[in-house]
Amino acid sequence: MIWLLTFLSCIWLIGAESPFNHRVHNERVIGGHDAQPNTWKWQVSLQYDAYDDALYYHICGGTIVESFYIMTAAHCILSMDPKLYRVVVGEYNLYKYDGSEQFIPVERIIVHPGWNGDLGKGNDIALLRLANPVYNNGYVAIANLPYPGQMLPHGFTCYITGWGLMSDGGSTPDILQVAPINVVEHSVCSQPDWWGSIALRTMVCAGGDGVISGCQGDSGGPLSCFTGGAWTVHGVVSYGPSGMCNQVSKPTVFTRVSSFQDWIYSVLQS
What's in the GO CC field (predicted)? Predict the structure, then answer.
């Protein structure tokens, strides 16, 4: 796991490693519940082979943004060697092979050029070029993305999905978790008793009610919101508070996808 050095006392990355060999030890969204099967079709499990021994670890979530590309958080990239990663799309139960999954090697890693390892500076976004395309088997879908610069209003309800901690130091479900989570507008999230100056306009804050939040293992996953008549991915899970994940006035912070549209499309078109 990569940790933010300058803000280590108040921030930790929402990205945990868990042993994986299709059966995975991992953790989930706090305050969530089992997702309905075949619902969040753009959700990805990003997995890492730390010892190059064909045993993969679920380290982060991700989003299908094109048949050859996955979007995730830059801090999820533990090595720039693409051979150490694979993605699983169509995943639901990490302990069980359901026949819906596609296991795809990563061919190339593209980290945003503005990422410097400091979460407070933002740019926590990366794209993974796959060795083989995602194919439509009925269990996957390419995510809709927001229009450039789009910002959601305060209190707008979105959904966080992932296999992250369900409580601080808590249990390890096998099923994809989902929870409703309300957007906290920048003018609130950037107040001193919230996230202050490290909450940038290129980020989306959501939660902060002390009940629902992302947590370790959710990093890189989508913030899905029903806007413009369709489900749209507005955020990439980036960071949360140290200690307890679900702290009042310390919402989960996402990279704002609408702030990076030009970069995303430049990569996809290349």
Answer: extracellular space
Q: Which entry of 45, 58, 112, 124 is annotated as an active-site residue?
A: 124
Whether residues 136 and 161 fall in one domain: no
Catalytic: 224? no
Q: How many domains does the chain have?
A: 2
Are 135 and 51 part of one and the same domain? yes
d(CA 154, CA 132): 39
Residue pLDDT, tens place only, 92-112: 998 889 899 999 999 999 999
Residue type for position 112: H
Q: Is residue 96 assigned to a domain?
A: yes
Other beta carbons less than 10 A from residue 137's beta carbon = 12
Task: Record the tokens describing residue 263, joined without a space.
Answer: 């970069």
* Claim to verify: residue 182 and residue 251 sit in the same structural domain: yes
Residues 164 and 218 in one domain: yes
Tokens of 268: 């996809």
Query: What integer pLDDT is reported at residue 8 of this predicted model?
Result: 28
Read off the pLDDT of residues 146-199 as tens digits, 9 standing for 90 and up. Answer: 999 999 999 999 999 998 766 555 555 688 999 999 999 999 999 999 999 999
The residue-averaged pLDDT of 123-127 equals 98
Structural domain of residue 60, as residue ranges?
A: 41-142+262-269
Computed from CA positions of residues 204, 211, 64, 11, in that sequence, does the dihedral angle turn out positive or negative? positive
Q: Which of 45, 213, 219, 238 is catalytic?
A: 219
> Is residue 31 domain-resident?
no
Is 177 found in the same domain as 129? no
Of the CA atoms within 13 Å of residue 163, those in its CB half-sphere come to 31
Residue 75 appears among annotated catalytic residues: yes
Q: How confident is the model at residue 24 (pLDDT cuts 50, 70, 90)?
A: very low
Specify the CATH number for the domain of residue 130.
Answer: 2.40.10.10
Annotated catalytic, 187? Answer: no
